[in-house]
Amino acid sequence: MDRASANMKSPESLVNETPAGMQQQAAPHRTRVKLCGLSKPEDVAHAIDLGADAIGLVFYPPSPRSVSVAQAVELVHDVPPFVSVVGLFVNATPDWIREVVSNVGLTLLQFHGDETAEQCEALAGVAGLPWLRALRVAADTQPADLVKSALNYSAASGLLFDTHVEGYGGGGKVFDWSLIPSELARRAVLSGGLNAQNVSDAIHRVRPYAVDVSSGIETPGAKGVKDHARMAAFVRAVRAADAE
Q1: Cα–Cα dist 205/82, whole Å
Q2: Which pTM value belongs to this model?
Q3: Among 122, 140, 188, 221, which is disulfide-ready with 208 (CB 3.0 to 4.6 Å)?
Q4: Domain count, the chain
Q5: What DSSP assignment string belongs to 148-162?
Q6: Which one is catalytic: 36, 43, 120, 212?
Q7: 222-243: burial string, b at 16+ Cβ within 10 Å, e else
Q8: Distance CA 199, CA 84 (A)
């Protein structure tokens, strides 16, 4: 072998080589953002412009944020690739799931009622879609309870942690974030009373995979009416927390 050949570096070594004085660093964590309870095309368009990773549509008629199938079809019409469309259901029947998914381009289901793990899997099978399970955290909930639930719903793509309130759906109230065990953070979608003022603290404490907001981006006292300035402030706060 001549000297030139001996001094040649393999393509692999060139790819892996780090310039002098520089150290390889892991990319900073980017908290995913889901803006939920959207009901107007302009709200969806604004969420997309803000860089939201997911939008949430509520298919639970008693909720003031609920949308019909016809409304949902219009809402998702211009959603671009790689933005998830999450459908929120509460104790839904297979027929209701089938009607929604056969007309609306959902990418993920979110079960927010009393569904057992077996029921979640059966309903997801009807839809042919992955699913999230919402776990409601009460005042007497213990970390061990959440670990047990996570094991029970191990087939879920993720776990959405929300505050336990009367009835179903979010109540805009915060729970004790320290109850979420660190080993569940990677699967965690943190919800419950989040807004632009507290989401940074929530991210620093829990380091969840994603955050979910609905009432925190609404006009005060007007459930379902999204405030574009609050939407923008929330997303900015999440990105600022990631950069710290």
Answers
A1: 28
A2: 0.86
A3: 188
A4: 1
A5: HHHHHTTTSSEEEEE
A6: 36
A7: eebbbbeebbbbbbebbeebee
A8: 21
